[in-house]
Predict the structure.
Amino acid sequence: MRGSRYVEAVSEVSLRLAPGACLALVGESGCGKSVLASALLGLLPENAETAGSARLADGLDLLAAGERTLARTVRGRRVGLVPQSPAAHLTPVRTIRSQLEETVRALAGIRRPALRAAAEAAAERAAFPATHLDRYPHELSGGLAQRAATSLALVGDAPLLLADEPTTGLDRALVERTVDELRAHTRDAGRALLMITHDLAAAARIADTVAVMYAGRIVELAPAEAFFGSPGPRHPYARGLLDALPERAFTPVPGAPPELGALPDGCAFAARCAAADALCRERRPALTEGVACHHA
């Protein structure tokens, strides 16, 4: 809700994620990716409203579950979260070691004397250096805070992991190591991963399926092999995202996304699309056969 009016931050999204699979949700900042992740775990503001359903394999509807269920049996245990803003999720008055040990004790049931070693092993999985375990969150760089949050998210071995920009603040070598660890934690172990990212190179390294979001809606849903290879993206916005990569044309998508509270009647991307015509400006395209474009 913005002011006295409601804004549809995410709309008409339908996704399916199988065990062992990774779906990469990509798009510009502000398109609704993080809102979707927050909705799944009941972390939206109190005045937010949700509709529809989001079911785990055992049938539990996350959108209908109450806070008690989410807090006691879902978060960390059945659905893990690598948050977009780790500094806001790390306890500022406790060391990273203390937070890891508490999480290991609660989710893995490990007690002393094995607790210390288990916490250090959890840190190692996310390439968090043991020399920094006794530091407080404010003593960490953004990249280290991100790795600390990733360590905490991996402890519970949840069947579903939501990773919201898990490579933010990392150099390329650490990006690849983090992505490989997430792949080992999920795909190789039969767990599912929803990875929210603007890093298309990271998505190409791990994803089985790519979903492109624009203005709160999915505009393309495709196998990663086809999206990053041949025939490539079919939606003009998705093609623009790939063309903006340094290893490609390095041409940014012109213009800016529309305000979610003032979406046009037609295609939300029409104002930025060189191929837009009267039909695009008058009628919003539905997601058909994996793409929401009148001229795909």
